Amino acid sequence: MAKKFHALVCCRAGMGSSMMLKIKCDQVIKEENLPIETEHGNLDSLIGFNGDLVITMSDLTDELNADSRVPSAVGITNIVDKNEIKEKLTSWCAEHAE
């Protein structure tokens, strides 16, 4: 069985936009049978986070990739574009497959 990755879907405040992104990510993950499980939060959720991936808006990606608490970050430009989400999550999974 393939490794199951743990992802935090977040934005700065953890309100509407990141919840919408989580819903879209979960749809793509289910449709594409990707080995990712998600949780929702805000940047404060990085405290104690020991997962594999942070999925966020593209404007936060550079900041998060520079954060030692973040193992890997994927930035999404259009949070309702399932094709973009599919492309980026599929690519990330391929890069991190064992």
Order of helices and strands: EHEEHEH
Structural Rg: 12 Å
Q: Please state the overall shape, judged from the principal axes of the Cα atoms.
A: globular
User: How many helical stretches?
Assistant: 3
| Total number of beta strands | 4
User: Spatial order of the strands in the main sheet?
Assistant: 2-1-3-4
Give the overall pLDDT as a whole number.
Answer: 92
Q: Tell me the structural class.
A: alpha/beta
InterPro entries: PTS_EIIB-like_sf, PTS_EIIB_2, PTS_EIIB_2/3
Pfam family, one: PTS_IIB
Keywords: Sugar transport, Transferase, Transport
Domain PTS EIIB type-2: 5-97
Can you give me a brief rundown of this structure?
By secondary structure, the protein is of the alpha/beta class. The protein contains 3 helices and 4 strands. The model has no long low-confidence stretch (mean pLDDT 92).
